[in-house]
Amino acid sequence: MCGSDSFSEMACFRGQSIRFKNQSFKYGRCDRCRSIVCLDEIPDNVYQDYPTTGRTSVFCIWRMLRFFKKLKVDKEDSILDFGCGSGALLTALKTKGFTNIHGYEPHNKKYSGTLKGGQKYNLVYSTYVFEHLFNFDDFFADLDRATKSGSRVFVICDTATRIPKLDPACLYQRCSIHAPFHTVLPSDDAVTGMFLKKGYRLAQFFPYDVQRSGLIFNNRVIAIFLDRLGDTKDKLISATWREQVLCLLKSPFSFFNALLIDTKDPLTSSFVFTKV
């Protein structure tokens, strides 16, 4: 994130997919910008057979719509889902009336050529993409191609800012670090500083995920499911309703707290930037 190679705090985290579950990866906290970085070499084909889902929670869709309303996003605005994965969220938003929404995803042939058209967008949103990046210069070059002066960029990403100490035994940290797929968990200051250098100003900031923080469905619930189903994303995605119910019955108090009380995710942040 900042070019420093000084890491005084380090720990090893087990891989979070079936493919990497028997491997450990070293992560360290940068002494300068306080981001958490994967210090081991990440395989070139790390995203081969990467587990993804083709659906999006109705709660996530509703919260995104609510946030769009807060940002005064018009349904006719040109919108880009940067790093759209399977395209599940943008497809759902289209059904809600956002007809001028497009997706960009370099690992999906359906959406990999979107930026070649040269279109500029009023709003670019990028959810859980920043922590997967290998090259930030390429990211901002792509972002510049998709934005113009006054365009807004809405970013949600995992953050190192509210992780007091690296702890591989902590369920929530394992879920957030998501070894080896997360190359970096940037600190809030590192994200803001990088966007400022690239010609964007911070318009709004929220120390939690505005899309996955709230009642019933949130990142705390996902983390508990992940732990109870074997600590791999593959099993989380493929879990049946019966398996999910059994998880609830085995840990009713943990789920009750995550579902209805402690619903915000402190290990993520949401940013809204405006291109100068």
Top CATH class: Alpha Beta
Task: Please state roughly what percent of the residues sit in beta strands, choosing from under 5%, 5-15%, 15-25%, 25-35%, 35-45% or over 45%.
Answer: 15-25%
- Uncertain runs are none
| Helix-residue proportion | 25-40%
Beta-strand segment tally: 10
- Total helical elements: 9
Number of domains: 1
What is the average of the pLDDT values?
90
* CATH architecture type: 3-Layer(aba) Sandwich
Distance between the termini: 22 Å
Element-level helix/strand string: EEEHEHEEHEHEHEHHHHE
- How is the CATH topology named? Rossmann fold
Q: Supply the helix-strand structural class.
A: alpha/beta
Report the principal-axis shape: globular
Spatial strand arrangement across the major sheet: 5-4-6-7-10-9
Radius of gyration: 18 Å
Largest sheet: 6 strands, mixed
Please explain how this structure is put together.
The structure is a single chain. The protein has 276 residues and is of the alpha/beta class. It has a single domain (58-275), classed as Rossmann fold. It contains 9 helices and 10 strands. It has a 6-stranded mixed sheet with strand order 5-4-6-7-10-9, sandwiched between helices. The chain has a 4-stranded antiparallel sheet with strand order 1-2-3-8, covered by helices on one side. Helix 4 (171-177) packs across helix 6. It is globular and about 50 Å long. The mean pLDDT is 90.
In brief:
With about 280 residues, the chain is α/β, with parallel strands linked by helices.
List keywords for this structure.
10 strands, globular, four-stranded antiparallel beta sheet, 276 residues, Rossmann fold, alpha/beta, six-stranded mixed beta sheet, 20% strand
